């Protein structure tokens, strides 16, 4: 009998015991969950993370090995191999802690010492009581609006232990909170696309990959890096994107790659590399459109039938409104791509069956509303939208978009406890009454009462005096760290639930230690778009030290607000009760759809499913294989109109025209970004692109051994073009200081021809490690990109972040290399 079988038997036994336990004994939910089943001491167990399903090997109750559970392609995903490091990290928060000055006097807590003060260990009960007391105080003095709990971040997957929703659920029980709108990923596109296409576009299922592979002759990958970004998904990755990437590589199709960086995907696909200057894609697209128009290679019929406003855009394209014709020559000057290449590119796309796949990097830039709008306009001229395997797609690089969908039972999930609160990619749903655009956080903290424009409305920032953050790392993810640090000194109280001593946890007053996924029960869908399955995420090991699940922390906090609040929060359910409920709701859908007779998919009753500890795979449908985005619209734009005011693709938007913004007009336009290589008086020399890291999920996993595989001279690597490096006297392996007026970091130089001259690449997510935490403009020793980036909105329309718009200087670092401190415990009071 295998160890897996053994664990299953044990589980069944304890389930039985639970069933006959009198209700009265079950009132302490967490004592109950302790006996609900026992953890295996030795053997293998299935679990799952953003980076896919995992097979863990347990020895004497400890994780000793972590491997992929399934194989969908030959592409390796090293993120799957480091579970042990994550669980047994040196910088795990093992107990609740309070910052010394805060503990001494919460009413005058010396916020300027955040990040530098000593920590005092307190008991769990003491910490809960302190948080509750200070929350009540804040509510009494300045109201619930002064509590910011927008708490953006990638946390861990799982429909039960959803840190952010659990926080919202709690806050909604005690009178509400100020939340956030939108996200960092697609801040600009998710606001502009509904005006243009009537849909959010960036988080939608894509035309199926098999149809792309069958029908497209040319595939353009425009500012995307799927080879890296498909290593994770929002839920648990189904890992099918890799398979299609591999098929694309082997298809013999013409693959064109447009990016200032020859990234992992370009190399993997051995694609033709066209390398514009960063943030100039709109100019490139305009040049191409000009060429198509003047050579009469565009689909007038498509423009007439499916779009509105081309006639109002055309005078701009031809230069009749501003005396600047957007010719390929004009575009060449801005993009530094030669005129001939621009013309050829335009013709190639028109002459062939073309699919354009775009990532999101180029919309995370100043005027980030424009690139995807211009790209849709270009694709409208090409006239291939809605045809099998052709057109455009904005989510092939993310969460396995384009994997044919299955007919599936969909799991329920913990909700935020209001009628409009959601569970999914939750920042798209409203769960609070007061909110501002997520990337305006530092602006809001620093400027209470300020009114800003946002997508046709006005928003006034509240005065925030209490921050509660869970499952995110804003000191690393938000732009312009030094301004952000100033902002984080404003509120009286900051509470963070974290697994590790991240830069954000260090900026708190009260820190609550949290379990990893591997120390608690959960359940998740496999894949975000295709719904390919359901995976159990069973507790693999006992929790480390005094860490708790977020659910437990918020349940205990709710208790401090009264038995009634506690009951409403928990509904008297343990973690496992909720998980069972989420599963059963999926199961009843599966039964209703008769999946068993339809295609032999059986969803067993929960107890059996849970004991078996195996994923359920649903069957992909023919409909899923045949799915073509916008096919219905193309078939009949009257019967299947888009959700825009005109029902058509809006190249010109009267809605936006009425907003009368100076930084986003009624049709796509080229705007000069605030910092770029073509500007007249450059404040610094190199354009920094802070891509998403191949071997992390943002900041997650930076504290694992995986770091040894990519760090250079024990710092985050920065790619520098060979010619530029020569001028600077820099070699691979050198320590470099990267700086501008906003801040300075150390990084490890990687000299390469895979980045164009004038551009450098440094991935976001390295943990901010200040040399002197008391001094705001201090050197970051580890290389966090956001020390250098700009904190300003894309425009008044979307207020997205502009992390890929940033100029920096570089020099060889000749001083004594300071030791890193961020991956160790901070200063503790003896
Ligand atoms: N310069 C630059 N900056 C960027 C970007 C860029 O391209 N360039 N990209 C932006 C984008 S798109 C994003 S999405 C953000 C990402 O920013 P984040 O989502 O903030 O980044 P993560 O590192 O995933 O942070 C998640 C944190 O949650 C913690 N955590 C994990 N599980 C749990 C749990 O169960 N409970 C609790 N309480 N905590 C948990 C982890 O330890 C980790 O510290 O970064 C943005 N920042
Ligand atoms: N391994 C891994 N995968 C991830 C993540 C991670 O942290 N690690 N994060 C996930 C998340 S939350 C998100 S939002 C997505 C992000 O997905 P994306 O936003 O698509 O990823 P980025 O790396 O920011 O950018 C993709 C490409 O755009 C290019 N680019 C940047 N600026 C420009 C420009 O001006 N013009 C052109 N043509 N190209 C440009 C970059 O060089 C890069 O190659 O990835 C997800 N997947
Ligand atoms: Mo993101």
UniProtKB/TrEMBL annotation:
<dbReference type="InterPro" id="IPR041460">
    <property type="entry name" value="Molybdopterin_N"/>
</dbReference>
<feature type="domain" description="Molybdopterin oxidoreductase N-terminal">
    <location>
        <begin position="47"/>
        <end position="88"/>
    </location>
</feature>
<dbReference type="InterPro" id="IPR050612">
    <property type="entry name" value="Prok_Mopterin_Oxidored"/>
</dbReference>
<dbReference type="InterPro" id="IPR006656">
    <property type="entry name" value="Mopterin_OxRdtase"/>
</dbReference>
<keyword id="KW-0479">Metal-binding</keyword>
<dbReference type="InterPro" id="IPR006657">
    <property type="entry name" value="MoPterin_dinucl-bd_dom"/>
</dbReference>
<feature type="domain" description="Molybdopterin dinucleotide-binding">
    <location>
        <begin position="686"/>
        <end position="806"/>
    </location>
</feature>
<dbReference type="Pfam" id="PF18364">
    <property type="entry name" value="Molybdopterin_N"/>
</dbReference>
<dbReference type="InterPro" id="IPR041954">
    <property type="entry name" value="CT_DMSOR/BSOR/TMAOR"/>
</dbReference>
<dbReference type="GO" id="GO:0043546">
    <property type="term" value="F:molybdopterin cofactor binding"/>
</dbReference>
<dbReference type="GO" id="GO:0016491">
    <property type="term" value="F:oxidoreductase activity"/>
</dbReference>
<dbReference type="GO" id="GO:0030151">
    <property type="term" value="F:molybdenum ion binding"/>
</dbReference>
<feature type="binding site">
    <location>
        <position position="154"/>
    </location>
    <ligand>
        <name>Mo-bis(molybdopterin guanine dinucleotide)</name>
    </ligand>
</feature>
<comment type="similarity">
    <text>Belongs to the prokaryotic molybdopterin-containing oxidoreductase family.</text>
</comment>
<keyword id="KW-0574">Periplasm</keyword>
<feature type="binding site">
    <location>
        <position position="520"/>
    </location>
    <ligand>
        <name>Mo-bis(molybdopterin guanine dinucleotide)</name>
    </ligand>
</feature>
<protein>
    <submittedName>
        <fullName>Molybdopterin guanine dinucleotide-containing S/N-oxide reductase</fullName>
    </submittedName>
</protein>
<feature type="binding site">
    <location>
        <position position="477"/>
    </location>
    <ligand>
        <name>Mo-bis(molybdopterin guanine dinucleotide)</name>
    </ligand>
</feature>
<dbReference type="GO" id="GO:0030288">
    <property type="term" value="C:outer membrane-bounded periplasmic space"/>
</dbReference>
<feature type="binding site">
    <location>
        <position position="473"/>
    </location>
    <ligand>
        <name>Mo-bis(molybdopterin guanine dinucleotide)</name>
    </ligand>
</feature>
<dbReference type="InterPro" id="IPR009010">
    <property type="entry name" value="Asp_de-COase-like_dom_sf"/>
</dbReference>
<feature type="binding site">
    <location>
        <position position="364"/>
    </location>
    <ligand>
        <name>Mo-bis(molybdopterin guanine dinucleotide)</name>
    </ligand>
</feature>
<dbReference type="InterPro" id="IPR006655">
    <property type="entry name" value="Mopterin_OxRdtase_prok_CS"/>
</dbReference>
<feature type="domain" description="Molybdopterin oxidoreductase">
    <location>
        <begin position="92"/>
        <end position="559"/>
    </location>
</feature>
<dbReference type="Pfam" id="PF00384">
    <property type="entry name" value="Molybdopterin"/>
</dbReference>
<keyword id="KW-0500">Molybdenum</keyword>
<feature type="binding site">
    <location>
        <position position="550"/>
    </location>
    <ligand>
        <name>Mo-bis(molybdopterin guanine dinucleotide)</name>
    </ligand>
</feature>
<keyword id="KW-0560">Oxidoreductase</keyword>
<dbReference type="InterPro" id="IPR006658">
    <property type="entry name" value="BisC"/>
</dbReference>
<dbReference type="GO" id="GO:0009055">
    <property type="term" value="F:electron transfer activity"/>
</dbReference>
<dbReference type="Pfam" id="PF01568">
    <property type="entry name" value="Molydop_binding"/>
</dbReference>
<feature type="binding site">
    <location>
        <position position="786"/>
    </location>
    <ligand>
        <name>Mo-bis(molybdopterin guanine dinucleotide)</name>
    </ligand>
</feature>
<dbReference type="GO" id="GO:0009061">
    <property type="term" value="P:anaerobic respiration"/>
</dbReference>
